Amino acid sequence: MLRHVVIWSMSEGPGEELDELLLELRALPDQIEEIVELSAGQLLNETDFDAVLCVDVADADALERYRAHPAHQPVLKRLRASTLQLIVADYES
Q1: How far is residue 90's CA from residue 93's CA, in Å, rounded to a whole number?
Q2: Average pLDDT of the residues of the chain
Q3: What is d(CA 42, CA 17) in angstroms, rounded to the nearest whole number?
Q4: Segments forming the whole domain that contains residue 66
Q5: Whether residue 4 has pLDDT greater than 80
Q6: pLDDT band, residue 84 (cuts 50/70/90)
Q7: What's the number of domains the chain is made of?
Q8: Average pLDDT score over residue span 3-13
Q9: C-alpha–C-alpha distance, residues 49 and 8, integer Å
Q10: Is the pTM higher than 0.70?
Q11: What pLDDT, on the 0 to 100 scale, is given for residue 12?
Q12: How far is CA 27 from CA 11, 36, 49, in A?
């Protein structure tokens, strides 16, 4: 199993834009079969970051298919356009 983790801060801080983005992210498992499990939410602790996404996929090939999937592209584009800082970490779990 491979876990894909994304942690980010919003350019304008958490708010409606973050809520909409989280809804779009949470809808991805219905569209992308490579996703084994997905969770996304606003961070509750004191930090410079606003939210986190965790996606579990079977292996590195599945991760590449997830990243390239047409349903993922608009959400990724919106995420990149609305973030101030973004960290991505992939690891085997």
Answers
A1: 9
A2: 96
A3: 12
A4: 2-92
A5: yes
A6: very high
A7: 1
A8: 93
A9: 5
A10: yes
A11: 82
A12: 23, 13, 22
Q: Would you state the structure tokens that stand for residue 70, as one six-digit string?
A: 């047409």
Under a CB-based contact definition with an 8 Å cutoff, are residues 86 and 8 in contact? yes
Closest Cα to residue 63, out of 24, 30, 89? 89
The CATH code of the domain that includes 72 is 3.30.70.100
Best CA proximity match to 79, nearest among 15, 6, 3: 6
- As given in the structure block, the two tokens for residue 61 are 């090939």
- In single-letter form, the type of residue at position 66 comes to Y
What stretches of the chain show up as alpha helix (H) in DSSP?
16-26, 60-68, 72-82
Nearest of 89, 86, 76 to residue 2 by alpha carbon: 89
Could you say which DSSP state residue 59 is in?
S
Rounded Cα distance, 89 and 79, in Å? 16
